[in-house]
Amino acid sequence: MEQTDLGTLVDNHESVEAGCSLSDVYQRFQAHEEDYCAVLEGTQVLGLCSRARIGFLMGHRFGFAIYSKQTVREHLVENALIIQRGTPIRKVLEQTLGRTGKDFNDDVILVGPQGEYQGIISVPALVRLQSSLVAETFQTQGAMHQQMLTLSRHAGMAEVATSVLHNVGNVLNSVNVSNNLIREKLRESEVTTLVKLGGLFKQHEANLATFLTADAKGKLIPKFLIQLAEQLEAEQTFLRQEQDLLARNVEHIKEIVAMQQSYAQVSGFIEQVPIANLMEDALRINLAGLSRHGVTIVRDYAEVPPAWVDKHKVLQIFVNLVHNAKYALDETGRTDKQLTIGIHQNGGERLKITVSDNGVGIPAENLTRIFSHGFTTRKNGHGFGLHSGANAAREMGGHLSVQSEGVGKGATFTLDLPLADPKNKAKN
């Protein structure tokens, strides 16, 4: 494992020239799934650009007009990490996974001995490698278990952050569409016709009554004004609707950012929280993706007491379950995609939260492996989400389980949690 060739960890080879316009880069991201792209000058790497950053700039109110002609070299990711092939694995992991804040989620650029571009390595790929090294390094089961928990928790935090970025990026795309529609409508506005009509009135202001009643062209103006008024009213209605949509999307972005900030604290603090509120936050984080994939959300919420939980851990579990359900639904290709969320009291002292989908389902042989560390069936999955969720549930005195009747028959994940703080209960 120490001799791993970094080239085998490369996830994609996407790149753009440094002189490429932001408009072209924006279109490039729209056509591909990757969230990062290398910026090159010839064969040499200048840095990294991100889908979230470009989407934010182009989705700005005047983003298209201001930034579309600017080159991508002017908007590189700050503190992008460029690793040379042949660098010792442990040094690479120390540099990449030792980053803090927003830098932690940025992919890493791999270059050759002469600085030539060789590809991009994602953070989940490095986390998986780190996990494997931990398993080899720690000989005692207790030490290895604790390290795995830490890595899984980091992966869960990264997944929430990635979901937030995807959601904001999707909403920014909608903002950009509305902005372009409004700009186009204003460019074609009939207000210019009204201005010309005003000029005609001014030209005949000395004999305006005669012009409107006796002149062949003037007599057409009253009827023309009625038609113009109808067109301007339709134009105003269209602009008002697009402006309302734009305002709602901007407000959604503000809510998502505020929500992320409220959770951006050290976990481990047990507090009394309404579980439905946490589930709604998880749905909001995934809302843009769910809407884009045409998923109908059905809520089956009973009146239940607040639960004593670590809200950060519960949110990570919920975000992962909703995220997985979205992909399971999308892979079916069916039009009646449905995600059903249930929250009920399970006896007198526990809660049962279910996340059910009518997606691709789970083969029987995978039901016993699905919570195992590193197990995934998705091409770009890291296999940490459900493993981390199961660990987090146990730490809170709960249990995460799954049921599926097989391929094509959907799946139901159930999170069982105590209403009371398990630690306080133990003391009593």
Name the features:
about 425 residues; alpha/beta; CBS-domain; Heat Shock Protein 90; five-stranded mixed β-sheet; 13 strands; flat
How would you sum up this structure, described in words?
This protein is α/β, with parallel strands linked by helices and 428 residues long. It contains 15 helices and 13 strands. It has three domains: 6-122, CBS-domain; 138-182 and 254-428, Heat Shock Protein 90 (2-Layer Sandwich); 183-253. The chain has helices spanning 22-31, 51-59, 63-67, 89-97, 123-137, 141-187, 191-203, 208-214, 221-263, 275-285, 287-292, 311-330, 364-367, 385-395, 422-427; strands at 15-17, 36-41, 44-50, 82-84, 108-111, 117-121, 271-273, 296-301, 307-309, 338-345, 350-357, 399-403, 411-418. The chain is flat and about 95 Å long. The model has no long low-confidence stretch (mean pLDDT 81).
What are the SSEs and their pairings?
Blueprint lengths: L14 E3 L4 H10 L4 E6 L2 E7 H9 L3 H5 L14 E3 L4 H9 L10 E4 L5 E5 L1 H15 L3 H47 L3 H13 L4 H7 L6 H43 L7 E3 L1 H11 L1 H6 L3 E6 L5 E3 L1 H20 L7 E8 L4 E8 L6 H4 L17 H11 L3 E5 L7 E8 L3 H6 L1
Parallel strand pairs: 1-2, 4-5, 8-10
Antiparallel strand pairs: 2-3, 5-6, 7-9, 10-11, 11-13, 12-13
Helix pairs in contact: 1-2, 2-6, 4-5, 5-6, 6-9, 6-12, 6-14, 10-12, 12-14
Tally the helices.
15
State the secondary-structure class: alpha/beta
Low-confidence stretches: none
CATH architecture label of the largest domain: 2-Layer Sandwich
Euclidean distance between termini CA atoms: 48 Å
